[in-house]
Amino acid sequence: MHIAILFGGSSFEHEISIVSAITMKKVLKNTQISYIFVSGEREFYFIDTQKINAKLFSSGEYKKSKVLSLKQGGFFVDTLFGTKSIDCEVVLNLIHGRDGEDGKIASMMEFYHVPFISPRMEASALSYNKLYTKFLAESLGVKSVAYEHLCARDERKISMDYPVIIKPVRLGSSIGVSIVREASGLDYALDVAFEFDSDVIIEPFIEGVKEYNQAGCYTNDWELSIVEEPQKEEFLDFEKKYMDFSRDSQVLSADISEALVLKIQENFKKLYDPLFRGSIMRCDFFVVDGEVLLNEINPIPGSMANYLFEDFEGMLERLIPHLSHESGISIDYQYIHSIQSAKGKA
Amino acid sequence: MHIAILFGGSSFEHEISIVSAITMKKVLKNTQISYIFVSGEREFYFIDTQKINAKLFSSGEYKKSKVLSLKQGGFFVDTLFGTKSIDCEVVLNLIHGRDGEDGKIASMMEFYHVPFISPRMEASALSYNKLYTKFLAESLGVKSVAYEHLCARDERKISMDYPVIIKPVRLGSSIGVSIVREASGLDYALDVAFEFDSDVIIEPFIEGVKEYNQAGCYTNDWELSIVEEPQKEEFLDFEKKYMDFSRDSQVLSADISEALVLKIQENFKKLYDPLFRGSIMRCDFFVVDGEVLLNEINPIPGSMANYLFEDFEGMLERLIPHLSHESGISIDYQYIHSIQSAKGKA
Questions:
Q1: N or C of chain B: less Cβ packing under 10 Å?
Q2: Is residue A101 situated within a structural domain?
Q3: For the whole model, what pTM was predicted?
Q4: Bond before B274 cis per omega within 30 degrees
Q5: ipTM
């Protein structure tokens, strides 16, 4: 298997995408990897797989790498004898946040006919926006955490009990997110959130809620990970976050009933199929009073959630032949020909 | 004003995009236009504005034009002395249907920092899918025509009274659309629709319903068109459709009350702002029992709905300084630097 890993991007999660990408080298032991870095300025660089490490980027040394151009059929590098395409079977989109998860990379891969592992454009647009994720879940019969929605120009009034959590609808990580414990704190938290986005959602903040993560994909059959109960901390400091995105060994299943696992899996499948086909995603669920509620969809999870799978590399290989491709549209100019004949100009 | 018009695309509406683009030459009398054609294979061609006509494309002669490449900052052409960018203030996305309206072009313009007139990515993804358009309208307090949704794998049962109209959720024009007058016709109509899409919506078909079109945009203030009552025919033949996409002179306002105009405008504004900022869109409304219902959003209407405006060219010029741009994200590698220091490697 030969895959190109696309990482970086003009995203608040640029740096953790680098961590995710480097982690893949440890995970995909039998895979030939080509690394394609998207700089903050959105130039493509071809990174030497032997030399990749975090400092290559923080030092700016990556700028000495060859620049690639994206054209019909793939990524190309200039050589003495013209341009040459980067060999690979498939591109793995590992750009977290903007560019990767908002649908830009998916759009470009489809436009240029490059096979890719990632949520497609529509799935990206819906899951990148926490409000649209609510619509999606609702339409699929998946319950999610209760919410209210405010635009920047709306009156700042909520009807939910405190404490609440305020989230800008479009950003990942914890950017612009606040927990508000009483009404007096609402205004400031909204100021912060509206710095980042025109829209926010407000959800009840449930102290000590049970959270469970489920990842998976559909190859020629369902391939579901174990269910993990992640360690919870209100905010992760940088070192914990680094650990989180560089996880590369399998973790233990949550100690929960078979019935609960089935409920979580059922919700995952409803969300995944068919919209997220072609991706390996992770969904984070809360369990409140025995009810499974969607908390969020991670369409491109940290280090691809490899640590939740027994055979991540094998799954990736099985996914490649089942990636969806846009249908072809034949352009035959029949309509213009008809007009021309009607006008006697044909 | 100097604009580049992007047209064509890998779309069922490729040919009518050509008609729309050519019409713009008649409408934008005081504008310098550069034409960029997207072929069915999705190569970019630089088309001579003096020579543009429908036959240039149907004959394949366009292939003699210069090929352009899309890179950071715009479209580039190879010259004897390296590459040279195509001068223009802004790109007008005039690709109807796939590529143009589904978010691909918007994604690419944003990625490559090219200023453009068109719905942005999120607006595209939502309005390209008729089911998501329903979610959107609902969330904004805009009433739309009643509907039911079926996936290909669902049981083929509807609870609505006949006649109904069946529409694939993702295609424009009338592709895959059928009117079904009684239950016995449902199965065949669904077969046809599922040929084109995994999802369909079913709406009541209301014989002789009153339809009104409203176009507009937000520059530094609202610029709303007149309201038109379009001529209705169940299906347009090719000549009528040609006429429809090549309209270039202003039409008359519908003969309706001021109160109804205001209701239509109010609904248009709710749908447009802020999601569709940067675009000139047209919304088609039905009026049933005095109630205004959204029928569809045309995010890139035929010939940009120029015929609904008194001063289309002036509006385009006023829109350019008010186009939204993505916010910059500064990548400072602070996080990787911290990790490196913590590890004693900095």
A1: C
A2: yes
A3: 0.95
A4: yes
A5: 0.94
